Structure formats: C-alpha cells, structure tokens
UniProtKB/TrEMBL annotation:
It holds the Pfam family DUF423. The chain crosses the membrane at residues 67-86, 130-147, 159-175. The lineage of its organism: Eukaryota, Metazoa, Ecdysozoa, Arthropoda, Hexapoda. This is Transmembrane protein 256 like. It is a multi-pass membrane protein.
Amino acid sequence: MGYGIVETTNYLLFTNPVSQGVFTGLSEVARGLGITPRNGANKQVAAMKTVNAIKIPLYDLAGRNLLFTRIAGISGASAIAVNAYYTQYHKPNLNKHPELKQIFEKTNKFHFIHSLVLLAVPLVRRPWLTGSVMITAMVFFCGSGYYQSLTGNSKYRNVAVVGNCLFFVSWLTMLL
C-alpha cells in the first residue's frame, strides 16, 4: 500500500536519512554555539531581545540610482511593444524569412533579460558604470538586431558584435 500525501511530505522533510543528518548537524552546531542547552539539566529558555526590523520600501533601496530602475521599466515596456508590433504587423515575413524571425527572437530575448538585470543595477558597487555600459550594449545590440529583423538589411550587423562585447563587459563590471 502506498503512502498518502501527509506521509510522503513527512518523509521528504523530516524522517529521511538526509534530513535527519542535516537536523543532527544543525543541532550540534547550535549546541556548540550555546544556543541550546548542553545537557538536559538546563530547561529554561533564555530570553532573547527582539529587535524590530526597519521597514524600508523597495524603491528606497535604489537610493540615488533610481534612474536605472525607471530605465528598466521603460526598456521592458519597449521590449513588449516591439514584440507586439513585430508579431502583429510582420506575420507574412515570419514564414518567408525564418532567419529574420530567429534574429528578432534572440534580440527580443536579450532585451527582456537585460531589462530585468537593469533592476538590479542600483545594488552593485558601481551602478553608474554598470548601468551605462549595459544601456549602451542594449542600444547597440538590440537596436541593430531589431533593425535587421524588421528591414532585412544587415548593414549594422557589426554594431551588434560591439553591443554583445559590451554586454560581456557590463556583466564583468558587477564584480568591481
């Protein structure tokens, strides 16, 4: 007879050998730090001083670099708008030129991903460096990719290569 949902959850979370090992290890670490009584003689629970956390709205975390959060919003909205425009008004080109569709999808995916990454830019050590390089990379890479996929003209293909290199550099600037 099989286990029910309660038995399965209990086994997965508490009674399997891995979970028991983790709980045992954590108990030993806590006991070593003096968080729990060393022996059963001391049953009193030490009174802990509670500290209320300061509630800060998420937009305040950006501080002076709120501009990048706003640019991320504009960039994400523009990625959605370009995607809607392309799928609505370029349907005949989707079947005729599958390579242009592939370029558009890759460009739009990079646009979305890096729009989301711009939300985290205020949290890095040098946000102005990371943000400005990333925005430049988005303009170069996504601009030339959108141009090529919408017009069929590969005149600015080399600009996409520069934009791709700038994406790489912008990710590395997060380490600084």
